[in-house]
Structure to design on (131 residues):
């Protein structure tokens, strides 16, 4: 399996590594197969190479928007992944709390409540890893 070497793909991989960290991206790259290669190329180029790489919003702002959207959609694994990524994006725990308060009002208390539980568990895991 070879990856395309387009400028958008290179930018996407660089941004993805900046936000999610090398270890996460290395695991994802090692796990990809012929079946999901087109999907991996799509998210690398479109999500990371295009949207996340745009200069109009900071990584912190994009991080908060992403967490709020994922929480509203009930995407638990993705919420946890993006909460972990805040170590690289500059979004604080207070920022995340505020974003999840918005989720409660605009997407529903149950969605926010569940995302808060995920964030708390993820923060505990992050703190334990630092110790």
């Amino acid at each position: 399996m070879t990856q395309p070497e387009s400028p958008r793909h290179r930018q996407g991989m660089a941004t993805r590594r900046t936000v999610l960290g090398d270890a996460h991206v290395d695991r994802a790259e090692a796990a990809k197969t012929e079946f999901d290669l087109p999907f991996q190329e799509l998210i690398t180029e479109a999500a990371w190479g295009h949207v996340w790489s745009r200069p109009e919003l900071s990584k912190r702002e994009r991080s908060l928007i992403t967490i709020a959207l994922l929480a509203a959609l009930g995407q638990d694994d993705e919420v946890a992944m993006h909460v972990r990524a805040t170590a690289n994006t500059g979004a604080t725990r207070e920022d995340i709390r505020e974003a999840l308060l918005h989720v409660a009002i605009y997407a529903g208390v149950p969605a926010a409540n569940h995302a808060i539980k995920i964030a708390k568990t993820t923060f505990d895991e992050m703190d334990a890893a630092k110790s």
The mean pLDDT is 96. The two ends are 38 Å apart (CA to CA).
